[in-house]
Amino acid sequence: MTEFPQLNGFRGGGGIIRLIGHRGARGVMPENTMEGFAFTYRIGVVAFEFDVVLTRDQIPVITHNHRLANAATRAPDGNWKTGAEPKVADLTFDELQTLDVGGLDGQSEYGQRFSDQAFMSGVRIPRLCDLLDMAAQPEHADMHLLLELKSDPDIKDDTSARAQVVASVVQEVRKRHLEPRTVLHSFDWDLLDECRRQAPEMPTSYLSELPGNVDEPGEDSATLVGPDYAAMTVSVPQAIKDAGGQMWCPYYMDVTPDLVSEAHALGLLVSTWTVNDKADIEAMIDAGADGIVSDYPGRVQHCLLNRGMHWRDGGA
User: Fold this and answer.
1) I want to staple 144 with a disulfide (CB 3.0 to 4.6 A). Which of 39, 47, 52, 125 is the partner?
2) How many domains in the chain?
3) Are the C-beta atoms of residues 183 and 205 closer than 8 Å to each other?
4) Can you give the pTM of this predicted structure?
């Protein structure tokens, strides 16, 4: 666990649990946007979890779903998108830039889930390089990146296309010398094998969600790209250790103190997602997690401060 300095930004202990802004701070700001990332950093959160997919012209962009959600996308005329939701991989970056992702349709199921999110206009889907350029600035030298490579079920068996996804992402990270602050992260454990082949200098974080959990409205499901949990003959932490991972990022409903202890004994860090309710945040603190991924970083801050804990070294 000590061989990757990147992990220090996600390591708990000594009264610290790392706070990781999910898609920036989705509960209060437009998700996966530069506006959201800037806000998150300004409130003292220095670890970011975000999602990367490729456009038709092979530009890595930051957005969660493979298809643009109508509930979060406005057309150039300012109206909400309707009809079939377009796939990011079928659009060029220039085409994406005609769309506004600065708010949610409050009449939609997804919009009602995040009714506290600020509504903004003129907000665009950023390129990966936009966030990396922010992190590379001297004033942001304490930023840590939990970079999720979104696995497309449509190319699950296309080895070349999958390798290209990894290569495009790794190239952007290396270009800005941000490998020492970047962890590569995915539900697709096979894709993480490719990450290790191409970028052995960066640690890998294994997302998991056990069968039986219900997919949240408006979210791409991980069931088509994740491992076959039913076929596992060892625990999930042991399987991650055996695969060569350094971090386990489980769905919070699957977390127990015993599993966290087992993961730590195996040398794995544990960051749980996506933890939004106060009772669940408290439960993850009690379970001994190293990090908490949340849409509402302010809630986690208050829970930690009330216990005399912090999310940053030195309580800065």
Assistant:
1) 47
2) 1
3) yes
4) 0.97
